[in-house]
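Two folds, back to back.
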Amino acid sequence: MNPHTLPRDIPDPVRRAVRQRCKFCCVLCICGVYEYHHFAPLFAEAHAHDPDGITLLCGTHHDKVTRGIIKPEEVRAADQRRRSEAPDALLHRLSLRRPTIHVLGSIVLLGEGPILSFDGTPLLCVVPGEDGIAEITARFLDGEGWETVYIERADSSSLRN
């Protein structure tokens, strides 16, 4: 909790509104793995989880913001740019061409097929669809190996939802 007794847990409707407004990615680099960041006001000063004052940042950019390397004005400007982008503006950024290159931390993979597998079961596949737009198939397992979420051939058109 912050000094105003606001808990860190952001309610689902607020999280959904922020994700949709930010088009499901970091407002600074379009990374699809993100964290929620209170910027207006900062979390320590917030009395409520206002979706207009929260944005999405990848872990790297969130860390740089909290360390003061990236200034709050830069976050605010990036959030404003993302708000004004047309829904289709990101589609060209999510296009894949053959051969595909995937970067997972320090691992660089070239080619198509599963990016990540466990015991021979593909967990993550990213391939270009017929139109060149990225299609993602992902399988998430719990600690006992049971499938909990399965996403089949989702493409970037889902950014509009």
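---
second:
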Amino acid sequence: MRHFSILLAALTFLSYAGQNLVAQQATAAPAAITLDEAIARARRSEPALAAARAASSNAAIDRSIARAALLPTVTYHNAYLFTQANGSHNQAGPVGSQSSPRFIANNAVHEYSSQAVVSETIGLAQLNEVNRAAAAAAIASAELEISRRGLTATVVALFYTATTARDKAAVEQRAADEATSFVKLTVQREAQREGAHADVLKAELTEQQRRRDLADAVLAAEKARVVLAVLLFPDPRTPYEMISPAPATLPTRADVEAAAESGNPELQSALAILRSANLNIKSAQAAYLPDLALNYTYGIDAEQFAVNGPGGVRNLGYSASATLDIPVWDWFSTQHRIRQTQILRDSARVALSSAQRTLIAQLDESYNEASLAQQQLASLQVSVDTARESLRLTRLRYTAGESTVLEVVDAEGTLTAAEIAQADGTLRYQQALADLQLLTGTLPS
């Protein structure tokens, strides 16, 4: 019974705390999110980007490991070897007559080894391995850049889509309010016997349609906000407000082409893959050359674990060796490996050529799209201003009895269509500019 009371109190406390947390979230002011902050938030939580970042970090560590392989290694070797005696004696030991080990490969019945071993291998393969690791790190870095910019492009597209949906909802809200205001005007004119009841019915039908359009626009804006919130917040239901940046100026064609040559991540990745393929050829060719192995050992290898043995014999000493292995015959295995790497190198060349052609085509297409969209922004603004003035004048003429209700409704629809077209035109320019920045590697970092 006592445990049940404790459990009930704990559940009550958790329920009360949860209600307070929900209340605090409901009363907290929505976070203001800029485009740069949205990109930063998405990069902290996107799993694909985290995997690419981990691969790039591991490739950098592999390069450090390859560099370390060029340096000598030091090992402190310790061992004790016991061999069964055969009952006879020999004169090979440092103290004269002693028992012989039963295994002829061993030196004594009791053998102690405590040595520092320094080893170094010098060859073209080891030197080339560093370059291969550097090329692999460059590939991983380029792939990370591709992933990072791909995520950035996704966030930019979702951000602008959400802001456009929000702007369209504001347009529909204004259109609905305008329709409601016109309904009041027609009712007043009917009450003053200056307008027909048919005008009231037409205005009410228009208002009803505007309200339905508003509901659809609000729903679309909320959907777009939730899709973006999945990348930004632990809880997609977190309220936030978007701060739209001003449309950036389109750079010149020459600047775009120069930036693409040095900053396009796909092109950099193709170049790194080709360089890695060339280094793989050198690594395979290194099998034709000899390797020089150096070894230096200093320490004890004796029957006693001591610096000096019985009779003052010195156990502590050193040995050194140099080994040169010259390849002679391997049944054409090295030649076949070289051929394999050459095939992969030729494939990498084709991929690089394809990446260059694709980049040229995409640059031309994206720049033309952005240029046309930018030119149309001014025209769309003129259309909105003209439609707004036309609605104002048409309503004045209707109030004075000089125009029909259909003319007012048509002017309202024209203004709404012009404002929605302006929102779509702004989205088109921002998307085209983001695509261009993605190709040139100049998206926000």
